[in-house]
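We now fix the convention by which a protein and its fold are recorded. The integers have meaning only within a learned vocabulary of local backbone shapes. A record is reproduced here so that you can trace the correspondence yourselves:
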Amino acid sequence: MHHNARAITLIVCTRNRAKHLPPALEALSRVRTRRHDEIIIVNNRSDDATQDLLESYARRVPGRVCILQESERGIANAQNSALRHARGDIIAFTDDDCYPEPDFLERIRECFLESPIDYLGGRVLLYDRRDAPVTIQTRATRVDLPPNSYVPAGLIHGAAFAFTRRAIDAIGGFDPATGSGAALGSGNDINALVRCSALGFRGAYDPRPVVYHHHRRRPGSDVEGLLKRYDVARGASYFLGISHPATRRAYAWPLVRRLAGNLLKGHWGTLAREITGGYRYARIRMKRAADAPRIG
């Protein structure tokens, strides 16, 4: 067996969604767990009725759920807060607008036990057909991701992904500059995956763990804004892949193909946003390096 896959921690972060949380909490209560599994829900600076709702939910399912509060805004900060408390050998994530299948954790455990992987993405299906078909992953076949490989943005979604404790600790958790509520506005998931690949971890997309995404975005400006944020995050992920020596070769051709495709099709807005994302993330990392305490 590759590693100890007994216990899973499932993490959900939420902010100001009290109105829509009850069905998500209901779905979580139907997720089958083993004795050592745990569910951590992080309230990230909500100023609506979220905390009351979460506390009431925790009382209804005693011993099953841990409720945390994280005052530093941004999903990456909330996720890192949960990581500091998590006890699982595998750390799984879903979103506060997703309804996991009852066998979600069982399927995740199965995937990690069957093959020597350290990160995993599952299937994300649309819950409401009236919603725009975005932020979903309907692929029915598995994709293996060898160490130091190109991880395409959108192959694995933060709504259904998991890591071994070893991998998530090795990358130092999630980058606070990424994800909703942060400087880049998106991409906390792909950023973590690229760093895992660069450190030599093996991953996979597997269709067996399933969540239903109830994002409530109808076609129109709301979706357009979201896709623009994804462009910025994608650009940052390309920069990250190219800047790391271990993944540079794997990212070179996909980057050239992406730039050429946008140029040939005249997708100037997408191209500009992706370049902006790469540039902004490069600036953030350079500033961090400059601010890092010098040794010696």
